[in-house]
Amino acid sequence: MEEKAKLIMEGREYELPVITGTEGEKAIDITQLRSRTGYISYDPGFANTGSCKSAITYIDGEKGVLRYRGIPIEQFDTKIPNFVEVAWLIIFGRLPKKEELQHFSEKLTRHAHIHEALKYHFEGFPITAPPMAILSAMINALSCFYPELFELETHEQFEEAAARLISKIRTIAAYSYRSSKGLPFIPPHPKLRYCANFLHMMFSMPYDLYEIDPVVEDALNLVFILHADHEQNCSASTVRMVGSSRANLFASCAAGVCALWGPLHGGANTAVIEMLEQIHKGNYTPEDCVRMAKEKGNPFRLMGFGHRVYKYFDPRSRILKKACDKLLATLKIKDPLLDIALKLEELALKDSYFTEKGLYPNVDFYSGIMMRAMRIPLNMFTVMFSMGRLPGWIAQWKEMNDDPRSKIWRPRQVYAGEKERDYIPMEKRQY
Ligand code: CMC
User: Model's pTM, two decimal places?
Assistant: First the structure.
């Protein structure tokens, strides 16, 4: 029998349909709540609201499970496929056939350059411009160069737009770093794979090619894969929100970059390192940080800890912790920030404040230490997160646009302002 939820209000009983997801998750369908009862739901921060049905990523936050299109994230650790293959999986819903992956990879190679006119945009930013601001502006600017990709009606058009974005974000990211340092742009190399090509554009010099270390390339590949999608997080929801007005894919993803920038979301990877550096400089001890994080009224938070969905370990953090150890050991790097991070984790996991609230290390806790080992500058960390997350944004945008029932996203509110009142001329205002 079809399950229903019962709602009793003002002496009347309403039956609301219950939706069950493929993993047994239940949701009360309130799409007709207002038209039938006159009431709306109230859920600031959307902590209890399913904004869509999605087949891309599955998370069980209580058990620490994360799957892309049904495949557990741990399988990408042991078999380490190419980030491009995972991007294709996330966007198109199944693992690609050999020729499909080859076709997509060729597109990435062909679209790796950016329009010559776009290069002049970098000169317009001050040298101190945050790379996330540049990235968002540049991705939005891409829409000016490909107006033919505003309407993505066919599979070919969509694949073309997705490939351009995934390829060009890498070039834009590297060039934003180069321009901030006054270094010449290094063109993409047609023979290098996705991550290696990025490292080449970041670190090669015209007179000295950067030697790609396969260990660093694999580590970056893993970081990108682990960031590739995370269901309806703040930036993915932003991409859907903007795209729901039928804004083009470039504009929607540019908005996603802005949402990711904040320290409660992707910006946390930078904030974690800043916090660890403060401890390293002796401004705080790990014990101070744990104490401040617990203090009522103190806005300080243990960065890289806690998650809206995970109430146990974030599975990505476990994989990254292992990968981080391996990377530092192979590169023979001794990073004191890793020891501080381990100490902080140990203290927090012994503390009932954190365990009772379900605050465990998240993806951002160890990713920064890995990026430092790869010589990625601190102000580029969230840019790296954006590069990894782009396939997820594209997939979320596509899923919404492919659904004929999707509507413009337009929440309601409970108005809590002044009742109707009259305009008072300036000279009569008595405050
Ligand atoms: N340190 C100390 N206390 C915390 C922390 C933390 N990192 N995170 C949550 N809390 C407390 C919070 O003060 C609140 O306590 P109380 O119930 O006494 O008021 C309780 O835990 C619930 O927190 P919340 O802010 O209501 O939870 P949320 O689901 O709205 O926020 C979060 C989730 C990730 C924004 C939050 O845990 C946080 O600010 N963490 C630090 C920033 C961070 O690492 N962000 C990266 C998230 S993972 C990657 C990504 O999404 O990009």
Answer: 0.96
- In the set 121, 200, 307, 314, the catalytic residue is 307
Closest residue by CA, ligand 1 atom 37:
306
Q: What is the pLDDT of residues 241-258, one digit of tens each?
A: 999 999 999 999 999 999
Query: Has 307 been annotated as catalytic?
Result: yes
By alpha-carbon position, which residue is closest to atom 35 of ligand 1? 264
Pocket test for ligand 1, best of 57, 227, 238, 301 (most atoms within 8 A of CB): 301
Distance CA 301, CA 367 (A): 18
Q: What is the pLDDT of residues 114-149, one digit of tens each?
A: 999 999 999 999 989 999 999 999 999 999 998 888
Atom index in ligand 1 nearest the CA of residue 265 equals 52
Cα 305 to ligand 1 centre (Å)? 7
